[in-house]
Amino acid sequence: MAESLTLDLADAGATEAFGERLATALLRSGAAGLNVHLEGDLGAGKTTLVRGFLRRLGHAGRVPSPTYTLTEPYALAGWRIAHIDLYRIRDPRELADLGLRDTLGPAVVTLVEWPDHGAGHLPAADLRIGLQVSGSGRHLCCQALSVTGSSIVDLLAAIPGLQEPAAP
């Protein structure tokens, strides 16, 4: 059972392709839902990853960052998906006032940007995906935090063309 996966992604296209592979792993997993925490500085590629994820599930429209709306809901391929951006949240207790708990649930896929801004008020993450700018690309670390997360990491590792970088 895999605990983590690290990759060097050459550019935004590779980041989006990883999002597509993440959605493929979800589809293959049979999981009822998934909670993904996306971490990284501004411009690290969190929304780009979500764009690939949603496109793989059939979304053809624009994928905006929900910085101002906080949540963008989607219904795709039989899944309820919530793309959440907590960048503007300063106190995690604000989430109760926003009714975010009504959006979340065990049969919902949540992709949360800036999850630390909602600490203690979000469902536990199955996966933590960290993105860091690395030259013109990104360094990605995907860490499993649950049995479901481990299953997803195993499935990701088995997808052809997705390889960990060679050890230095």
Write up this protein:
There is one protein chain. The chain is of the alpha/beta class. The chain has a single domain (4-158), classed as Rossmann fold, CATH 3.40.50. 30% of the residues lie in helices and 28% in strands. The chain contains five helices and seven strands, in the order βαβαββααβββα. It has helices at 12-29, 46-56, 94-98, 100-103, 147-158, and strands spanning 4-9, 34-39, 71-76, 79-85, 108-113, 127-134, 137-144. The chain has a seven-stranded mixed β-sheet. A hairpin with a 2-residue loop joins strand 3 (71-76) and strand 4 (79-85). Helix 1 (12-29) crosses helix 5. The two termini are 24 Å apart.
Structural class: alpha/beta
Characterize the main sheet: 7 strands, mixed
Helix proportion of residues, in percent?
A: 25-40%
Instruction: Provide the CATH architecture.
Output: 3-Layer(aba) Sandwich
The ordered string of helix (H) and strand (E) elements is EHEHEEHHEEEH
Instruction: Tell the overall outline.
Output: globular
Distance between the termini: 24 Å
Q: State the helix count.
A: 5
Provide the CATH superfamily.
P-loop containing nucleotide triphosphate hydrolases
If you consult CATH, what is the topology? Rossmann fold
Widest sheet: strand order? 1-7-6-2-5-4-3
Q: Give the total of beta strands.
A: 7
- Under CATH at level 1, the class stands as Alpha Beta
List the domain count as a whole number: 1
| Model regions low in confidence, pLDDT < 50 over at least 5 residues | 164-168
Strand percentage lies at: 25-35%
Q: Round the Cα radius of gyration to an integer and report it.
A: 15 Å
Mean pLDDT: 87
